[in-house]
Amino acid sequence: MAPRYGWYGDDFTGASDTLAVLAQRGQKAILFRGIPTTDQLRRAGDLDAVGIAGASRAMAPGEMTAELLPVAAFFADLGVRLMHYKCCSTFDSAPHVGSIGHAVSVLGGAFPNALSPIVGGQPNIGRFCTFSNLFAAAGTGGEVFRIDRHPTMSVHPVTPMAEADLRRHLAAQGLARVAGLHYPAYAEGADALDARLGTLLADTPDAVLFDVSRVEDLAIVGRLIWQAAEREKVLAVGASSVAQAVCAHWGAEPGPSARLAPSEGPVFLLAGSLSPITRRQREAAVSYVKLQLDAEQLARDPAYAAAQAEAIGVDLKAGRSVLATTAPEGGEGDTTLPPGEVAVATAAFLNAVLAKAPVKRLGIAGGDTSSRAVQALDLWGLAYLGMPSPGVALCRVHSDAPGLDGLELMLKGGQMGSPDLFERLIHGD
Predict the structure, then answer these.
(1) From 269's CA, which of 19, 101, 366, 387 has a CA 20 to 30 Å away?
(2) CATH number of the domain at 5-250, out of 3.30.230.10, 3.30.70.980, 3.100.10.20, 3.40.50.10840?
């Protein structure tokens, strides 16, 4: 039978988080690096959910079209009932880069349901959507800010969030008529809520944005999405809360989290994030040899990159874990290079290090960094191993390259993870 759930992540960290959500709830799921071959699908076995990890968050609209049209065709042919475009939980995007509205326009043709649901909020990682306005915590358990006043996301170096009302934010990206279904309606009961949604759909909106302000909202939203998907396959947009909502409706509850085992050998951790959260994790990582890389030299000077890779390889071969950072010490970007160029150079550097000293556990921090770096690795799929911190997945690499197959890979967005995350990547829980 066809998998009932498909997802495309606009970056690798987010895609792996959705993999974790589904696997924790008993769904047989795998995340492919790109559109899988028939042989890779066969090797993956029977699946409830199939994911594709991409990098559309960092793409211009034209690039997104070329990326997403084959994705739409693949999932439509696969027969999934629900296609989930997994965006960042903070919805940071813009008309010119990572446009969520453009993604909907490209993917929506293959999933022509009258309901185009957008799920705002993911409470377990401190994301809350009320009356269509998005709020986000500053780090795990941190103070909650309206997204346009968030200390990091309001000044994001690529896609700063200047509007908290997601209807207005998405209108600038081509979704001019987004209707909001607000959380007080969830208390009205199923029949009344169905009628309210029907009234909204009668006005043929471009999409319907669902509030999620608490965990209890998820099953309610999941029922509305899944009953639409049972009638006609549907495209849903949002963070991993889309998977949480549908699984809650299915009655698929998360199982106990597996403890993180100590690493077998040294860890290499590559951090490209400018986030204060990642900076604090780096400061707490006392068990690593720390190396500050010059991003511009890494991109422009092959001799510099080769020398740094050689030095890291020496430490790793000697059994010393290494944390290499491309973000400046002060946390503010001072390079003249475009972020995409830095990410590409970082990915090439990662390959060079692994060629010098293969490791059994690897960590990558930063959404764009993770996406580019994983694309540069010779792997075809990821399977879930555990969740060291909310929103952070540890995965097993599937690869035809013997040195990579079985590698344990942690992918982390800049805003995610506890302060001691990097230390626990070595020592376990």
Answers:
(1) 19
(2) 3.40.50.10840
